[in-house]
Structures are given as C-alpha cells and as structure tokens.
Specification:
alpha/beta; Alpha-Beta Plaits; Acyl_transferase_dom; Ac_transferase_dom_sf; Malonyl_transacylase_ACP-bd; Malonyl CoA-acyl carrier protein transacylase; transferase
C-alpha cells in the first residue's frame, strides 16, 4: 500500500460559500468557523458564506478565510479516521498543513495569516508590483531571462514553480511586463497576468517577511506529528524552530510546488488528497505525474468517496 499526502490550497482557490456544507453538518468544522470569528473579532463566517466576492478577494480577508475553510474540511476528514503520511500546502496552504500536523493551533494560525495578508498588502504600493503565469518555459531559461531583466533595472523573479510548463513570475510591474514581451527567449509560449494585489514570493516582500517574523516570534510551535514539506526547501522541516524561520523566508522565496510533489512521490506517496476549496492543486499534481491517485475533498459529498477510494 502506498503512502498518502494531504495537500492544502493557497490564495486563488477561494469562493463565496466555501465550506458551508461542512459547517452545517459537522460540529468540529463549525467550531473552526466560530473560532475564526472569535479570534478575528468580526463575523468572518458571514463574509465566507455570503460575500461579497470583492471583500473576500482582499488578501487580508482571503488568507484567514481560506485557512478557515480548509481546516474545517480537514476536521471533517479527521472524523473519518483518515491519517496522512505527509502534509503540504501551497503558499498560504502551508499554514493549513501546519495546523493539520499539530505544529500550530488553528487560533494562532488564523490570527497570523490575517496579519500576513495585511503585511503583504502594505509591502508594495498598489499598482507597482505584478505577477504572471508563464506557460511552456523551462525553469533555468526563465530564471536566466528574469536575471537579465532584473539587471536592466526592472526586478522580476521566479515565484511559484507549480508544475512542468507552468511557472509564476513576480516583481515590479515593468519587470513582469517585460517577461511577457520576451517570454519566447525562455522557450515559453505566453505569460498570463494574474489578478493579485502585490508581487508575492519576490524579494519585494522582504518588509512583509520582517513584520511576519515579529508576529511569529511569541507563538508556540510544537514539533510536527506528521512530516510537513516546506515550500522553501521542498523537504520536511526538521524542527519547530526551523519551521518558524521557513515561514518568514516563504513570503519572499519561490514556492517549490513541483519539487514538493516530486519529493513526496519519491518517498512512496501514490495518493494525494486535496483538502479545502477548489481543485487547483489536483490539476498541478496531475501535470507533474499522471500515475498518482488524486482525491479532492472540497465538499461534504466528496467525504463519502474519500474512504471508499482509500480502502480500494
């Protein structure tokens, strides 16, 4: 029997109404939503269930909302008695993974990601930063193109190494635009601008990372009960202290998602369970390796198929 990894989505997977069926049917999931409202001091649950979408899309709302919906889904999965061999999350999703592995309490995580969203929004004035998804480029060739554009005075860097043929770049508005114009130099087909509020996972986020470090410092981190694969290294974090440092680095470093998936497969994982809204990660994992089994738990209905799939 192969191993199982639980993976948790990042920003972009959110939608109005996410997690409502878990809230209605699973008391442990409902407690997560109630706890979020209490920690944040406002009815986040109402915003998640009723919108408006324009409010939910604001980074400082998206991050705690997505964490809440993902952990609520995880609580429902946990009640089924399913335990993973590894956990990982994409960017913000790493916090859901840390809650699932017992490193952080949900209360500490939800307060932290609310602040993380605020720090990321504040780091670069609106309109000065950008991100774009580059399709079809090789990693090294695209990194080289980014280095040469940065050397010309327009900072742009690799931000999310998602799967073969899909890499997100991040940086100054001009730098990202130049990647789009010169994408063929890196063997790429095209660059699609992303609707984001800042140049996430680029060195322009260092001021946000510094503030996040201050926020994380007093929090209690437990040793992981389940190995957590870090975005920054695509390897399991060895200790609670290392995790604290990696979360700071993660804000301005590339998310090594393709490497994370490849590493997990090398460790015997043949089943990936995406827990939380949407199915973005399922799509990326499929493009990385078509042979693995993929299960998506974004709704109550999918819980019933989960246990059946794992028992096969």
């Amino acid at each position: 029997m192969g191993k199982v990894a639980f993976v948790f989505p990042g920003q972009g997977a959110q939608s109005v109404g996410m997690g409502k069926d878990f809230y209605d049917a699973v008391p442990a999931s409902r407690r997560i939503f109630e706890s979020a409202d209490e920690v944040l001091g406002f009815p986040m649950t109402n915003m998640i269930f009723e919108g408006p979408d324009s409010e939910l899309k604001k980074t400082f709302n998206t991050q705690p909302a997505l964490l809440t919906a993902s952990v609520a889904a995880f609580e429902a999965v946990r009640e089924q008695g399913v335990t993973p061999d590894f956990v990982a999350g994409h960017s913000l999703g790493e916090y859901s993974a840390l809650v699932a592995s017992g490193v952080l309490s949900f209360e500490d995580a939800v307060g932290t990601v609310r602040a993380r969203g605020e720090f990321m929004e504040q780091a670069v004035p609106g309109g000065q930063g950008a991100m774009a998804a580059v399709l079809g480029a090789e990693r090294e060739a695209l990194a080289e193109l980014c280095r040469s554009i940065t050397a010309e005075g327009h900072l742009v860097e690799l931000a999310n190494l998602n799967c073969p043929g899909q890499i997100v770049v991040s940086g100054s508005k001009e730098g990202v635009a130049l990647v789009g114009e010169r994408v063929k130099e890196a063997g790429g087909k095209r660059a699609i601008p992303l609707e984001v509020s800042g140049p996430f996972h680029s060195s322009l986020m260092k001021s946000a990372a510094e503030k996040l470090g201050g926020k994380l410092q007093p929090l209690h981190f437990d040793e992981p009960a389940i190995p957590v694969i870090a975005n920054v290294t695509a390897r399991p974090a060895a200790s609670a202290e290392e995790i604290r440092g990696l979360l700071v680095e993660q804000v301005y470093s590339p998310v090594l998602w393709e490497d994370t998936v490849t590493y997990l497969i090398s460790q015997g994982v043949d089943t990936f369970v995406e827990i939380g809204p949407g199915n973005v990660l399922t799509g990326l994992i499929k493009k990385t390796d078509k042979s693995v089994k993929l299960i998506n738990v974004s709704s109550l209905d999918s819980l019933e198929t989960l246990k059946a799939s794992l028992e096969q």
